[in-house]
Amino acid sequence: MTKILAVDDSASMRQMVVFTLQSAGYDVVEASDGQKALDIAKGTSFDLVLSDVNMPVMDGIELVKELRQIEAYKYTPILMLTTETAGDKKMAGKNAGATGWVVKPFNPDKLLATIKKVTG
Amino acid sequence: MSIDLSQFHAVFFEESFEGLELMETSLLELDVDAPDSEQINTIFRAAHSIKGGSGTFGFVQVAEFTHILETLLDKIRDGDQSIDPDGIELFLQSVDCLRGLLEALQTETEPDTTRAQQLAGVFQAVLDGGTYADSANVVKTNAITGAPLHAASPSPAPASSDDSVANAGTRKQIGFSIVFEPEEDMLKGGNDPVRMLRELATLGDLISHANTDQVPDFDQLVIDHCYLSWDIELVTNCDIDDIEEVFEWVEDECELSITPIYADISSAAELHYSNSQNHAIDKKMQQATAEGQRLVMPSGPLPSLDNLQLASPGDVTNNGSDATPAEASAALAPPKPTAPAAAKPKAAKVEASSIRVGIDKVDSLINLVGELVITQSMLGQMGSAGDSITDEHIGNLREGLVQLEQNTRELQDSVMRIRMLPISFTFNRFPRIVRDISIQLGKQVQLELSGENTELDKTVMEKISDPMVHLIRNALDHGIEMPEQRKAAGKPEMGTIVLNAFHQGGNIVIEMTDDGGGIDTERLLTKARNNGLVGENEKLTQEQKLDLLFSPGLSTVEEVSDLSGRGVGMDVVRRNIQELSGSVEVSTEMGVGSTFRIRLPLTLAILDGQLVTVADQTYIFPLVSISESLQIDSAKVNNVAGGSDVYNLRDEYIPILCLDQLFGLRQEAKVLQDSLLVVVESEGQKVGVVVDELLAQQQVVIKSLEENYTRVQGVSGATILGDGTVAMIVDALGLSGLAGSEIAAAQKIAAEAVA
User: Fold this and answer.
1) Which pLDDT value is given to residue A101?
2) pLDDT digit string (tens) for A31-46?
């Protein structure tokens, strides 16, 4: 089963993402900030990481940079959940090594469609 | 898949209100001269989360407003925009405004966006280069009303392929030719070309040719470099936008060209076979598939490395007739059965308040339940010992029961603790109140908080909040003096209000101290005399004078401000606190300040009770309301005309109530001499209650009489005793209501005695 790590500091967004993914049959682990996500990621391997950008403790950009340092996550698809629709901010995650992004607000169908893009 | 998003609304509102609180606190703490970047970040993040959530859950009004707020905060964060006190004020107003919008949405009413639109206008003016103050003024005078925050976004441009069709005349566009040359590093971002090819294949019929001429010899191969490029022909009737979207994440990491390809639909041959375009495309597809099988086959020597997954024919080419994309994805992701109840929990509206409990509390609960189970099985084992019960068995049984008692008590404590929240939930409201009111009054006041982590039952907390706001307003309005007055009195111009909370016994104590002018008790007395609350010649102790502060209809200020001083305050404060079985006392020193001390039980569900018997019935007095118990000396009983008895308690006259008479338990009156008198106090009024016997003190769980039976005066609730019988809990306040005539008599005697 495809294993996904979902990272967002907002509980409602996290619940929505987790519920959506679980309903679609994915195995989901959640984390509420980058540092927690990193700790979890080090212990388990994931097929995909979905992360918010703005978070306390460690933000999504930093998380991507850290993950890409880890051998097991060198090529793992990492998608940023971002509200930026244009410009540098949208590319910040990409430049840090993210695979792509999902623009907020999104609905469950859009999220699943994007996930399917990367997980096949 | 359709997922009901409303199930996440409750959490969204909860976290948004928390976010707003955090924003408010950070705004209040922010030093505009040297803004702390972490604080600005916190404010930004709160706005950002609310924007993200409200957008996702369809609360457009909130999303639109937070968008502009966030844009401005982002600029401040990046140092492109300054912040000043006027700005802070505007942001604080935005917090209020957002709170209003969210509250309306929470109750499913249409929010009033007038204020949001005004503020959005102000922020837009700031973004356009104005100062906060000017922008606020300009917008105020312009009185923007009803203008939408953003023009509706233009509808997507018409599909380009349609244009091409129109221009192409007899030529019909049937798809695109795509040249896709990834940069060497593209794989490092986790973007696999196979993904994009696969996705293209879902859009139509794909013929792809992989160019392998850039692939170096095996010994020079870098494992994570991409050496391949693709020439792709896609037969499709989708838009160019759809193609671009496939490559959206890699557009800066590849060379990409997308050009339309056309078929000559006026060609007699094709029209002859079919007059439907679809049929023509079908034919093209068949050719394509056939070619695809061949073209896609790798032709050169290829690295067989996992990271360089290459398109294999079966993988990428879609022969069009198999599974539709929808079917395919359905097969890939079979819907997982979710818990039936969790699937659609239609949240009860608004009132479904929730409580967040730390995981440690839940763990300790589970731990205790575990111990309870162990004790239970231990006792169970003893019970199955059969007939041969020895002394040893009984000893063990006693031990087991002691264990059970301890388990129960600990479990009870633990469950209670679940309802406990740190008082910071209430305290956090106060910095804003103090700031706003002190600005309004032209005073300088700082607020110091301590003991914010002291825990308190959630219900008690909700009910104590308003009385505390009242006390703070009073302290600001009447307690703290104007800066010049303070300076003249040799005090610092900045006044201080200290809020402190701590546990003491089974109670929580909340202290509010101000370093203001203190309470003028003489003026209180004069006022009370003028209002007829105190007789002309009545002498009062200092304590009694101060107590007048809580009398209804008494205010010491000459002028009534819009903040406080209407004289309907302190009496309400005291009543609210007493309804929570708490008490409030005040101490003051002229010129130095005052302290209000509120004492509250930790929970309303359980109380420490004194068990008494009256005519074979057991009653319970809340221990907090009992001031003393004594044996009646009939010499100190005065009988007043009308049959009411009063008792001379150290020169204080208190009415005597006989529960047996009040509740109709006995025909003839009890002889007072040597009977037991329980003196209970409530709202400063003491009442002596005659009882037969004092029993043990114990904690009792309060059951509502109103919910289970009906309201009875003089009884605040009931409980179930160890032997299974029901006992009434006596309401001291209600008793004095029942004993109106006795109290009047006592006051008369007291007045005569003084005279």
Assistant:
1) 86
2) 999 999 999 999 888 9
Q: Which class for B317: exposed (0-12), middle (13-18), buried (19 or more C-beta within 10 A)?
A: buried
Q: How do beta strands B715-720 and B726-730 pair?
A: antiparallel
Q: Are residues B174 and B305 in the same domain?
A: yes
Q: Which residue has the tokens 């693709």?
A: B230
Does B191 sit within 8 Å of A94, measured CB to CB? Answer: no
Q: Is the CB of A69 inside 8 Å of chain B's CB atoms? A: no
Number of domains within chain B: 5
Cα–Cα distances in Å, from B553 out to B139, B518, B525, B531, B537? 43, 20, 13, 8, 21
- B195 and A54: CB-CB below 8 Å? no
Q: Which domain holds residue B90?
A: 5-142
**Which CATH number characterizes residue B739's domain?**
2.40.50.180
B514 and B593 fall within a common domain: yes
A42 lies within 8 A of chain B by CB: no
- In this structure, are B510 and B476 located in the same domain? yes
- Spell out the long-range contacts of B310-316 with Cβ–Cβ below 8 A and sequence spacing 24 or more: B310/B194, B310/B210, B310/B228, B311/B193, B311/B194, B311/B197, B311/B208, B311/B210, B311/B230, B315/B194, B315/B198, B316/B194, B316/B197, B316/B198, B316/B201, B316/B206, B316/B208
Do A104 and B248 lie within an 8 Å CB cutoff? no
CB contact, 8 Å: A114 with chain B?
Answer: no
Smallest CA–CA distance, residue A25 to chain B, in Å, is 5
Based on the fold, state whether residues B297 and B176 are members of the same structural domain.
yes
Q: Which of A16, A68, A94 sits opposite B56 (nearest CB)?
A: A16
Record: contact B189-A99, CB cut-off 8 A: yes
Interface touch B3/A22, C-beta < 8 Å: no
d(CA B141, CA B181): 58
Choosing among B249, B252, B327, which should be mutated to test the A contact, i.e. which has the most A CBs within 10 A? Answer: B249
* Residue numbers of B between 215 and 234 with CB closer than 8 Å to A: 224
A contacts of B46 (beta carbons < 8 Å): none
DSSP state of B155: P
In a domain, B344, yes or no: no
Closest Cα of chain A to B95: distance in Å? 18
Identify the three-state secondary structure at position B559.
coil
Q: Are residues B403 and B447 in the same domain?
A: no
CB atoms A75 and B307 under 8 Å: yes
Contacts of A101 in chain B (CB under 8 A): 249
Burial (CB count within 10 angstroms: exposed 0-12, middle 13-18, buried 19+), residue B593: buried
Which domain range does residue A65 map to?
3-119
Query: Cβ distance A60 to A80 under 8 Å?
Result: yes
Residues A106 and B56 sit within 8 Å (Cβ to Cβ): yes
Note whether residue B351 is domain-resident: no
Kindly state whether residues B273 and B386 are assigned to the same domain: no
Measured in whole angstroms, how far is the alpha carbon of residue B213 from the centre of its chain? 62
Contact A55 B3 (CB under 8 A): no
- Sign of the CA dihedral with B144 first, then B149, B152, and B157 last: positive
Are B105 and B219 in a shared domain? no
Query: Which of B345, B299, B292, B285 lies closest to B316 in space, CA to CA?
Result: B292
pLDDT tens readout for residues B160-206: 444 444 444 466 778 888 888 888 888 888 888 888 888 888 888 88
Peptide bond between residue B313 and the one before it cis (omega within 30 degrees of 0): no
Instruction: Indicate if B568 and B441 belong to the same structural domain.
Output: yes
The pLDDT tens digits of the residues spanning B94-111 come to 999 999 999 888 888 888
Interface ipTM? 0.80
Q: Does A100 touch chain B (CB under 8 A)?
A: yes
User: Tokens 């998003």 belong to which residue?
Assistant: B5
Q: pLDDT over 70 for what percent of chain B?
A: 77
Total number of domains constituting chain A:
1
Question: What is the CATH number for A32?
Answer: 3.40.50.2300
For residue B373, give both structure tokens. 């189970």
